[in-house]
Write a structure and sequence with these properties.
mainly alpha
Length: 402
């Protein structure tokens, strides 16, 4: 079905389904990020080394990244309504199992269940093709940007998870999040609808993924998204540890500031999508990467709290959020319509993997004597500069997808 024929039907249900997809994404991302806000607690209770705590907060990112490849391809076949429901329900038990592992003070079980907790991070690759099918080409930057704001689930987790533990207790906090996943899954199943413009792609998954991997746009956007979204994920998961090590904030103080960081990126992401619709994705992405490079250097200088440091981190988050919105607006523009889910899955996986390695690098390069992460931040600066240059000169033009 062409966009032109589907257009009269798309107006009815657009806002509702975009809102539902964003809600499902936000709740699943809260669950995906359950371990990081409590990283300081786990470190103290289990006596973890710098490398162990980095691995603990990074592990859920791994399956949440690689799983997007499969979830995106399956969304092309089964639709967003079914996939959102299944993934939300599949995440809930592992939230409870993480609580069990934490109560037993078992680092091994935390790693194991944290790995599967990453299922919650795969919903990103479901939502992109889902909302993409609900909007015309000239509004997809807006749609994917608004949906992408659901990554604010990490902000909710950073702000509320430590407080819930203080208010209700460790086990009850995990029970609340698991219950929220089940409730939202029920809401999605009963009220969400796949776009009338969506047509199931019943081709076998492996050849479909192979076809997506042969597209230049897949690898071009994968690199850029690995830098933009990977930078956001890395900071949103590791920032509580960073703030404890560098500024000696406690769990709640670090969580509050991490929530502010995530919120800035969340607000900036739809702005990046809208600006990309109007100005083009290339200039918006280039500005985002350039700004991130500069702010990485500023943060590496360890500005004083609260205002200089706070403003620096918020500005860094805003540039990273702007970049994520611009890159996925570019995906919607350049990817063939019938392969958006597969391409989005691969690109989303690259973004998640981009967030898996930096915490490990930060932990490995941490200067305990000076309480400094300078080396890791300068590596971020260098990577962002490379991404900016590639954005301006490396991405080849393609005819926009229809």
């Amino acid at each position: 079905m062409s966009d032109a024929r589907a257009a009269p039907d798309l107006g009815h249900g657009q806002a509702k389904n975009l809102a539902l997809a964003t809600l499902a994404f936000a709740v699943s991302f809260w669950a995906w990020n359950m371990i990081a806000p409590l990283g300081v607690r786990y470190t103290e209770d289990l006596g973890l080394s710098s490398g162990q705590k980095s691995l603990l907060v990074a592990t859920p990112v791994l399956v949440g990244s690689l799983g997007r490849i499969l979830s995106g391809a399956l969304t092309d076949r089964f639709g967003g309504r079914l996939m959102f429901t299944v993934l939300l329900l599949a995440t809930a038990p592992f939230v409870l199992l993480v609580a069990l592992a934490g109560n037993r003070d078992s680092f091994g079980l935390l790693l194991l269940f944290g790995f599967f907790l990453g299922i919650g991070g795969t919903t990103f690759a479901v939502g992109i093709p889902f909302v993409n099918a609900w909007y015309q080409a000239d509004r997809r930057g807006f749609a994917t940007g608004v949906f992408g704001a659901g990554m604010g689930g990490t902000a909710l987790s950073a702000f509320f998870t430590p407080r819930f533990v203080d208010w209700f207790g460790y086990g009850v906090t995990h029970l609340i999040v698991a219950a929220a996943l089940v409730v939202v899954a029920f809401l999605v199943w009963t009220t969400m609808q796949d776009s009338p413009a969506w047509v199931p792609n019943t081709n076998p998954v492996v050849p479909k993924l192979a076809a997506a991997m042969r597209l230049a746009v897949t690898w071009q956007m994968s690199f850029l998204y690995a830098v933009a979204f990977g930078g956001f994920v890395a900071f949103s998961t590791y920032l509580p540890t960073y703030l404890k090590d560098v500024y000696d904030f406690d769990l709640t103080q670090a969580g509050t500031r991490t929530a502010g960081f995530a919120l800035a990126a969340v607000v900036a992401r739809p702005i990046g999508g809208v600006l990309s619709d109007r100005l083009g994705s290339r200039p918006v992405a280039a500005v985002a990467f350039g700004g991130a490079a500069v702010l990485a250097v500023v943060v590496s200088l360890q500005p004083e709290p609260e205002v200089p440091a706070g403003l620096s981190f918020v500005a860094l988050a805003a540039f990273l959020g702007l970049g994520t919105g611009a890159v996925f607006a570019w995906v919607a523009e350049m990817a063939p319509k019938e392969r958006v889910g597969s391409v989005a899955g691969i690109v989303g996986a690259a973004g998640g993997l981009g967030g898996f390695f930096p915490p490990l690098v930060m932990g490995a390069t941490y200067d305990e004597a000076d309480h400094s992460y300078t080396v890791g931040l300068l590596l971020l600066c260098a990577t962002a500069v490379v991404a900016m240059v590639y954005t301006l000169f490396g991405v080849r033009r393609r005819t926009p997808a229809t």
